[in-house]
Structures are given as C-alpha cells and as structure tokens.
Write a structure and sequence with these properties.
The chain is α+β, with helices and mostly antiparallel strands. It is built from 24 helices and 11 strands. The strands form 3 sheets. A 7-stranded mixed β-sheet has the order 3-4-5-2-1-8-9. Bound molecules: adenosine-5'-triphosphate and magnesium ion (MG).
C-alpha cells in the first residue's frame, strides 16, 4: 500500500493530537481511496478529543457543522485544488455514535463515545469504516519512518478486493436509521465501477443490501431534498451515470426522486426509435459529451414530456409539444430537488429548445440569429451537446454530425450580428437625446421592434438607419409597438416551428 500519498499536513495534525495524549486516526473515504489507488478528495481524521479540545489545539480551526466536526486550516496540499486558494481544510471529528433518527432526517443527538471501534460501527459501508493509525517506528533510525496500522473490524479491505459495497451491520436497520445511505450506495457504485467493464467482476452492491433498499426505498421521502439532490448530482456526474440511474430504478429509489422518469418505462415511441422513452432518456445521459451538471440533467430529462404528449400508438405515434411540456416538468422536478435557480433556468432552457431545427441549406442566417436570441450565444455549445446526447442516445446511429458542424460554422458566422438589444447600434439614451423621447416603456418597446427587424436584416444596424426608423415608430402607441415586435417574432417562429414539427415526427 502506498502511504506516501498521505499529505504531511495530515501527519502533522495527527502528531499534534498525539503530543497531547489524544488518539488520532485517518478514516473514511480517504482510506478507501488509498486502498483503491485513487486520489482522495478530502482527508478526515477521527479522535477522542472533544471538539472544544480540538479547537484549542489548532489555532486556525473552526466548527464545520452542527455535529461538532472541526475544520483545521492548513497550507494547501490538494493537487487538484485551485492554485490561488489560501488553505486546505482537514476535518476532525470526535468519535461518536448517532442515536435514533426519529424524524429520519437528522440524528436526534450526536453522542460522543470513547472508542474507535464504536465510531467505525456507525459508518455506512465496510469500505468506509477502515481507520489508519500512523506510528513512528524506530526513532533511532536515520530517517524517521512511518508505520501504519490498519484497523478494519468489518473487513472493508476484503470487500474492496471483491469490489463489493456492503453496509456495516444489518442493511435494513442501517437504512432505517438514515435512508440517504441507500442513495450513497448507488452513488459509490456509479463512481467506483469501471464504465468499460461489463463483466461480473466489476463493482456491485451486496445482494442483501440491494434487497433492503428495495424494501425501504419509500423512506427516502423523509430525507431532506438537499441531501438527496447532492447524491443525485454526484450520480449524474459520475463515469457511469446511466448505470447509476438504472440502479436507482431497480432499487425503487427513482420513484422517490424523479417518478416522472419512471413513467417513461415501457412507453414505446415510433418507427424512428428502437428505444422506449425511459431507455432513450438514459441512453442520452450515457452519451452526453459534457461534464456540466445542467447539460447532463437536460440530457436525462430532454424527453421527460413524451409520456404526457403521446398520441396514437405504435409506429405512428406522435409527441407534439413534448419539448415545451418537458421544459415545464423539468422546472418542477429541479425545483422540488432544490437545485439553485441558475441550474433550473439553464436545464429548462436546454430542454425547451432541444428540438431546434437545423438543416444545411434550408435554414437561413436569420433563423440562426433567432435561435441565438432565444437561447443566448453563451448557451449554444451546451444546447448542441444536448442534441449530440439525444442523437447518440437514440439507438439508431443516424450519424450526421456534419449538420452540427455546419451549424457551428453558421453560429460563428452570425455571432457578431446583433442578436440582443444590447448589440443594437443605438440604445435608450440615444433615443432620448437624439430624438428627444421621454423616458418610459415605449423606449424598450421600440428597441424590441428594431431588434426583431435587425435580426432579419443586420445591414440595418447603423445609427442613422435605426434613428430614422425609430422616429417613425415613435408615432405609434405602446400597444401597437408591442404587437409589432411580437408579430415579427411569432411569424418567424412559425417558420422555424414548421421545421420543428417535422422533427417531432422523428425526434
Ligand atoms: P467522498 O469524500 O469521496 O465523497 P466519503 O466516503 O468520504 O466519499 P463523505 O460524505 O465525505 O463521503 O463522508 C465521510 C465518511 O463519513 C464516510 O466515508 C463514512 O465513513 C461516513 N459517512 C458519511 N455519510 C454517512 C452516513 N449517511 N451514514 C453513515 N456514515 C456516513
Ligand atoms: Mg469524504
């Protein structure tokens, strides 16, 4: 085992504790990761010193949470951290057990215990319940060498060798105490398994642990949505996101997280698809080329509106409007899971626009500008990634990536053209100073009309032309102006939608 990966600030923390006759062990995910040869994400230390005592020993330390975990600030040592950060944090937790979780959300109280074995027994999985004791051996030797004792009462090393995720103790009881552990099992599975290994020797969850999850999946409803969200995000961002979501389904946990996805199970599509709606959503997630959370969520949810919009059966079924229905559903789902508003807005936008029509030769530069106006230039790359996920996940490799490459070229080409009010050659101030218009809502309405016209013909985007046109428009009343802007947008939208309609039959 390669213990040289233990960073020296961690060793110093252990030394400081020992100097004062406290115990100190490295424990949890980082020990698991050492045995797996993975770079640990964070380093956790457990001790018999009480939180106040830990705070007193380390001047640069602070309470991390309500459970008495103390964070100690040390010089940066994480290799993958941001270079400009001032410090890294080592988390020190006092040996403890968690008494009953009567509201199934939080332990009623955290009780400190005297021994390491008791602390290890409250941990979730055998591979997360291994502790390392670092001792200095033979101080007379020229170089002080470190000897590491492994404390592994639940045979976590053996389970790591067998690639088995297994609860410490009885799974039903452990899931009854904290239902989030069921999701953690799936998350660890999705993170640890080798995405390219289809053999039985890949990671798996112990059978009784799976069965206990199937039996107690309903308890997840009692867990705070934020905790559920965080584990779900990690599953989605792992190397095996679709296998993770499928395991959520077979353990019945998905029903408690996104039941709308389960509604796509067994829903056949039409002659252009070999997959059911659920299979296709999953396959799109699997093939999503992006590592961004919003894009992965959108890939998973892009066809979430299909079960609701399905009309007809068999080869001729249609799914009109599933993009917009799906966007509303996406918004509701992500709200429910307490995602930040920025994540919700982005994922919803991507689902809403995932059917954008694009055929080389058929689509005008103006319609590409309209698409950019609707979606935002900064979101175009992500929208294309959702489309790539959709296409690769369709099971029918109608590989036409040249279409997307051509669109990329068109986007580049029109990207300097005005697609937002900000990019017009005049602004509200010039309407007031040059035309003497009074401040008010009419200013914005005129700019909207100007933009809709400039999108059709960018050569009009000069100060003189726009001022002359604004002079004419300023004679109109506000309602007429608003209608005008809408008219242009909707008339053109109908053109674009005509293409989309054809896509609905195949997408
Ligand atoms: P990673 O840091 O890679 O996310 P981890 O296993 O370190 O994985 P953390 O959430 O950092 O996960 O938790 C640290 C340790 O605390 C775990 O290894 C485990 O021993 C224990 N633990 C975390 N959550 C629970 C839980 N819900 N029930 C029991 N023990 C838990
Ligand atoms: Mg950790």
């Amino acid at each position: 085992m390669d213990y040289s990966v233990i960073p020296s600030p961690v060793l110093s923390v252990l030394d400081e504790l020992k100097k004062r006759n406290y115990q100190g062990h490295i424990v949890g995910g980082c020990v698991r990761d050492i045995f797996l040869g993975r770079e640990p994400k964070d380093w956790d230390v457990t001790t018999n010193a009480k939180p106040e005592e830990v705070l007193a020993i380390f001047p640069d330390s602070f309470y991390e949470n309500d459970f008495g975990t103390v964070g100690v600030k040390v010089a940066p040592f994480h290799k993958d951290g941001r270079l400009d950060r001032e410090h890294d944090v080592i988390e020190i937790t006092t040996y403890r057990t968690e008494s009953a979780y009567s509201d199934r959300r939080r332990p009623d109280q955290v009780s400190f215990v005297m021994s390491l074995p008791e602390d290890l027994s409250r941990r979730d999985f055998t591979m997360n319940a291994i502790a390392l004791e670092v001792r200095e051996s033979d101080p007379s030797a020229e170089e002080i060498s470190r000897v590491v004792d492994i404390i592994d009462p639940f045979h976590g090393q053996e389970d790591i060798r067998q690639k088995l995720i297994r609860t410490v103790g009885n799974p039903e009881q452990r899931f009854g105490e904290d239902a989030l552990r069921m999701m953690r099992a799936v998350r660890l599975y999705a993170e640890l398994r080798d995405a390219n290994d289809e053999t039985p020797s890949n990671w798996k969850i112990d059978e009784p642990t799976i069965e206990a999850a199937q039996k107690h999946a309903g308890l997840l409803a009692h867990v705070s949505r934020e905790r559920v969200r965080d584990e779900f995000s990690r599953i989605i961002l792992s190397h095996s996101p679709s296998e993770g979501v499928e395991l959520l389904r077979t353990t019945r946990l998905l029903e408690e997280i996104i039941p709308e996805l389960v509604q796509g199970v067994g829903i056949g599509q039409n002659l252009h698809h070999t997959y059911t709606v659920y299979e296709h959503n999953l396959s799109a997630l699997k093939h999503c080329p992006s590592r961004s959370l919003e894009v992965r969520l959108a890939s998973l949810l892009h066809d979430i509106g299909k079960p609701k919009s399905k009309r007809g059966d068999g080869y001729r079924s249609t799914f009109y409007n599933h993009d917009h229905i799906g966007a509303r559903m996406t918004k509701d789902i992500l709200h429910r899971l307490r995602y930040p508003l920025s994540v919700i807005a982005k994922a919803t936008l991507l689902v809403d626009n995932h059917l954008f029509y694009y055929n080389v030769g058929e689509v005008t530069e103006a319609s590409v500008r309209r698409l950019i106006r609707r979606v935002g230039l900064e979101n175009m790359k992500d929208l294309m990634d959702v489309r790539i996920a959709d296409r690769l996940g369709s099971g029918v490799p109608k590989a036409k990536p040249y279409k997307l490459r051509h669109l990329e070229y068109m986007i580049e080409k029109v990207s300097k053209d005005p697609v937002s009010v900000k990019m017009l050659a005049i602004n509200g101030t010039s309407l007031m100073s040059d035309l003497g218009m009074a401040p008010g809502p009419k200013i914005g309405a005129i700019l909207d009309v100007l933009l809709s016209e400039v999108i059709e013909d960018p050569s009009q985007n000069s100060k003189e032309t726009l001022l002359a046109r604004a002079q004419v428009l300023s004679q109109e009343d506000l309602a007429t102006l608003r209608d005008k802007a809408k008219e242009v947008i909707e008339e053109k939208r109908a053109d674009d939608d005509h293409g989309i309609k054809n896509r609905h039959k195949v997408a």
